[in-house]
Design a protein that fits this description.
Helix content is 46%, strand content 21%. The two termini are 54 Å apart. Helix 7 crosses helix 11 (314-327). The chain has 4 domains: 3-46 and 333-417, no CATH class; 53-328, no CATH class; 441-643, 2-Layer Sandwich (Alpha-Beta Plaits), CATH 3.30.70; 645-716. Strand 3 and strand 4 (138-144) form a beta hairpin. Strands 19, 20, 21, 22, 23, 24, 25, 26 and 27 form a 9-stranded mixed beta sheet that branches.
């Protein structure tokens, strides 16, 4: 590869890589793209499947619809119900009780009972909530905490339950806490762990240090951070992964009567000596999280394993966060800088392969990298709990691929316009298109091609020059050449050049035509018909009589010719040369001697008839043209078969009878036939009249005995 080409490739790949990277980064910030990224992360959980939990340290107590139907008072229940709950859970050996309920309103009748239970047992974490709400005046902080009676009697700090949601409102991260007015408030799960593991407040990292370390220390637990002041919750499975009991079952002891017991018989699901929860020891040394599953309370959230149609209760989110910390089963995110490097590498590979090889290889490389990267993200999550960003690298590949294809299209289009601009003024449109498609600029040189040469010339054009001034002459010739050239091009011919009023063209190059001879013959007749229309038009306009009688002679020959770019290095033309080209020119000039307007060689006639029978041919002569030694049969194209009438066919039949007699040297009989055909000829002079005179000449001066019918032309 030449140095200039290497530099072009380097700069095109570099610029496209950077552009694709910047565009990918911008697209990655769009909401739909971010939501797709998060949904893919959720899919990773589903593909991994649930993680079994052996002898979990967490038990859930559900404030369920069943509990609401069994407790005599409907929700909101009096707070002595929670006092009973705390009492029974402590009797069952619970180490920490987390109430995911905000008791901000006073229950003047029962709060004292509830407060006493909080004070007596000292292992209950009450919930609070700090919310930032956007208003027209700005961000407003709303604080919801337990009422003063409960706060004063509970020896433990309040745990926060405000969830950190992503752009799609799903909960995937768990905050360490909130800072309000200089005071730190940790999340319910962290406060619960402090109580469970007897961790003092001094053993917990302050929240303002969360940005300075990669871990957040909670006593013996070193929590791996994934974002500012939070970590990724490793959801162990769908709802129901932790042991769960309805709240009414826990308070249903010998001293408490549920609705079912009042209506039927006593069950005592908590302290029955045979099957009660106390007997089973399900709460022994456990972290018990109490929360709502009642749809009317609306404490449901989107999470992995929990879609919009079946969201997850809020207290389960705390359970999964605590379990993640207890087992140290953290999920980490790939470093952002590593993702940036991957994106740049993908942009470079996609553009480089496409630029060096082709688009197909570029697409194959993109598909291969896409599949490989997707598999890597799956394996990294399943085996190493590592989350790779998916949208950034995928967008990099797609944008890079589209960008380099777009760039190459732009360069190709620009190159096509450049070539067309350089050569269209003196090279045929077909050749320009061929050069554009091949991507190669024309060079000097040629090749031998079997094709058809075409020459046309206006009869007695010098007389036109004498009778018309320059402007009128140019106007006339332009109208004529425009009409004739359109027909030439429409039939697949290539315009070689104009020589004054003459048209030089060819069929079969540079675009190959199977029926080049037939196309040229049809073009000649369409030109004759178009000229007849022009003559009628000119007769009705302000032109001299000679213009209304304009005639054009056409010569055509088919054979091997040299075609190619010929001329100087700085200026050249795609043209043709060779003996067969000269023969076509001799046919055009020789047509005058036979009183016809289109004369073709036998090779053209045979080649045309092998592709179709559109034209009516008649033999003119077997001649040796000036400048050649070998005889060649020449024919007139009398008309297109579709337009020929019976008179023409009868004329040609009589004429061909005359020609047979002529070649047999039966001059008188031949003259008789030619005289009959002459009466049917369309114009004069005509071939019949020419051969009447020829027969009389031959009769007066008979040819040699070995005469083979060849006539030698003395002029061009």
């Amino acid at each position: 590869m030449a140095k200039s080409n290497r530099e072009k490739v380097f700069w095109s790949v570099s610029i496209t890589t950077l552009a694709a990277f910047v565009i990918s980064m911008g697209l990655g910030l769009m909401g739909p793209v971010q939501r797709f990224e998060l949904q893919y992360h959720d899919k990773l959980f589903e593909w991994r499947g649930p993680i079994p939990i052996q002898d979990s340290s967490i038990v859930l107590v559900a404030m369920s619809d069943d509990a609401d139907s069994e407790i005599p008072e409907k929700y909101p229940w009096p707070t002595d119900v929670y006092a009973k709950l705390i009492e029974n859970l402590n009797e069952a050996g619970a180490k920490a009780i987390l109430l995911d309920v905000i008791f901000s309103k006073r229950d003047t009748e029962h709060d004292s009972i509830f407060a006493k239970a909080l004070s007596d047992y000292g292992n209950v974490i009450l919930a609070g909530q700090i919310q930032k709400i956007q208003t027209s005046q700005g961000v407003k902080v709303v604080k919801q905490f337990p009422n003063e009676v409960l706060l004063e009697n509970n020896p433990n700090r309040t745990g926060q339950v405000s969830m950190l949601t992503d752009v799609d409102k799903a909960v995937r991260y768990y905050k360490f806490g909130y800072v309000l007015e200089g005071e730190e408030y940790y999340m319910l799960g962290l406060e619960g762990l402090r109580e469970y593991a007897d961790i003092s407040l001094n053993e917990v990292d302050p929240l303002d240090d969360a940005l300075k370390k990669n871990e957040f220390d909670l006593g013996p637990y070193s929590i791996q951070k994934a974002a500012k002041n939070s970590f990724i919750i490793n959801y162990y499975g769908p709802e129901g992964i932790f042991p769960s009991f309805s709240l009414d079952e826990v308070i249903d002891d010998a001293e408490y009567t549920t609705v079912g017991e009042a209506e039927a018989f006593e069950m005592n699901l908590f302290d029955d000596p045979d099957f009660g929860l106390l007997k089973q020891g399900v709460f022994k040394d456990k972290i018990v999280i109490v929360g709502s599953t009642m749809p009317t309370l609306g404490d449901y959230h989107l999470t992995p394993y929990a879609s919009g149609s079946l969201p997850r209760p809020g207290f389960e989110i705390h359970a999964h966060a605590i379990q993640t910390i207890l087992e140290g089963n953290y999920i980490n995110r790939l470093n952002d800088w590593v993702t940036v490097v991957i994106m740049l590498a993908f942009c470079f590979l996609a553009t480089w392969v496409t630029r060096i090889f082709n688009t197909i290889w570029g697409v194959i490389t993109t598909l291969f990298l896409t599949g490989g990267y997707l598999y890597t993200t799956y394996m990294a999550f399943v085996h190493f709990s590592l989350i790779f960003m998916i949208t950034g690298p995928m967008l990099s590949l797609i944008v890079a691929q589209v960008s380099i294809i777009g760039y190459e299209y732009y360069v190709e289009l620009k190159e096509k316009l450049r070539i067309k601009g350089m050569f269209s003024s003196y090279v045929s449109p077909e050749l320009v298109n061929q050069m554009v498609e091949s991507g190669e600029e024309p060079q000097l040189g040629g090749e031998k091609i079997y094709m058809t040469a075409f020459f046309s010339d206006i009869q007695s054009f010098s007389t036109f020059s004498e009778q018309l001034d320059a402007n009128r002459l140019v106007e006339l010739i332009n109208e004529y050449l425009n009409a004739m050239t359109d027909i030439l091009n429409d039939q697949g011919g290539t315009l070689d050049k104009y020589i004054g009023d003459a048209i030089v063209g060819f069929f079969g190059a540079p675009v190959s035509l199977q029926d080049h001879a037939l196309k040229s013959c049809i073009a000649s007749q369409l030109m004759q018909k178009k000229q007849a229309e022009l003559r009628q038009k000119w007769k009705n306009e302000d032109w001299p009589d000679i213009v209304g009688n304009m005639q054009t002679r056409i010569g055509i020959n088919t054979g091997a010719m040299v075609t190619g770019n010929m001329g100087s290095v700085r200026r050249f033309n795609y043209t043709m040369m060779g003996d067969n080209v000269n023969l076509a020119a001799r046919c055009e000039s020789g047509a005058k001697q036979y009183g016809v307007y289109t004369m073709v060689t036998e090779s053209t006639k045979k080649e045309a008839e092998s592709c179709g029978d559109d034209c009516v041919f008649r033999l003119l002569d077997n001649i040796v043209v000036k400048g050649r030694t070998q005889p060649v049969k020449v024919y007139e194209i009398a008309d297109l078969k579709a337009d020929a009438d019976e008179q023409l066919f009868e004329c040609i039949s009589l004429y061909e009878d005359g020609m047979r007699l002529y070649f047999n040297q039966e001059w008188d009989k031949a003259i008789n036939k030619f005289q009959q055909s002459a009466k049917l000829e369309r114009h004069t002079p005509n071939p019949s009249e020419i051969f009447i005179e020829r027969c009389r000449m031959m009769k007066a001066e008979p040819p040699e005995a070995e005469w083979n019918g060849v006539f030698v032309m003395k002029s061009k």
